[in-house]
Amino acid sequence: MLGSWELCIAGETLVALPELALLWPAQSTLFIADVHLGKDASFAAAGIPVPQGSTTETLARLSHVLRKACPQRLVLLGDLWHAKSGRTAAFTEEFLDWRRTNGDIEMILVEGNHDVKAGPLPAVADVREVKEPHLVGPFALCHYPEQCPDGYVLSGHIHPAVVLQGRGRQSLKLPCFWFGKQTGVLPAFGSFTGCARVSPCEGDQVLIIADGRVVPAQIAG
User: For residues 14 and 146, what is the distance between their CA atoms, to the nearest angstrom?
Assistant: First the structure.
């Protein structure tokens, strides 16, 4: 796929997409993390003025990557919704309309810390909610990036990014995929999430998303 990067994890071929998603072709499964729907509404409800529209934009980007990857299954690695206050009637209906449009795709939500606070999804959403670790093949699907004895962990939660240093003290923070020996962390998918700098170890695979491409970063020891 254009701009993507193929890698082998736990004996399986995975494809990191520039759309901040990870594809497992052998199982027709797409992974994303930290969508944080309704975050704009949550901030507004708390009296914090922020630009609106991130939820609509995020769902549009998710529709795009689903059309591109054509998976049979979508696994959300936690934090689908940002908060209960963000799950307004209007945003809930927008999400349900989006879900009906993609009704042929199985959807699984690995419960994250924000999902716990937001509460369970309505049954009509047709999203199976599971606890971590959710074991599928060689992978332990989680929200928190903690080691699991039962499989290689695919997770989210920390919104990973790396900072590239240029000449003249220039720097640029970019979202990344971060694959260690036993744990992999996906970038945050949501349009209004931010990211946190991480410190990979030597030997880790770090894939940066920049200019619509996924490219490997060189990590020094």
Answer: 20
Q: Is the dihedral of CA 177, 180, 184, 190 positive or negative?
A: negative
Q: Is residue 209 within 8 Å of 187, Cβ to Cβ?
A: yes
Beta strands 128-130; 12-17: pairing state: unpaired
DSSP state of 86: G
Could you tell me the end-to-end alpha-carbon distance of the chain, in angstroms, rounded to an integer?
Answer: 31
Residue 219's pLDDT is 62
**Separation of alpha carbons 69 and 87, rounded Å:** 28
**Is there a contact between 212 and 3 (Cβ–Cβ < 8 Å)?**
yes
pLDDT digits (tens, 9 = 90+) for 131-168: 999 999 999 999 999 999 999 999 999 999 988 766 65
| Cβ atoms within 10 Å, residue 170 | 8
| Torsion angle of the four alpha carbons 141, 145, 148, 153, in this order, in degrees rounded to the nearest 10 | 40
Helix (H) or strand (E) holding 213: strand 213-216
88 phi/psi in degrees, rounded to 5: -70, 165
Residues forming beta bridges with residue 153, ordered by sequence position? 140, 183
Structure tokens at 192: 């209004």
Could you give all domains of the chain from N- to C-terminal order, each with its CATH number? 5-216 (3.60.21)
Quote the tokens at residue 158: 């920390």
For 46-151, strand residue ranges (E) read: 73-76, 106-110, 128-130, 134-136, 139-141
pTM comes to 0.91
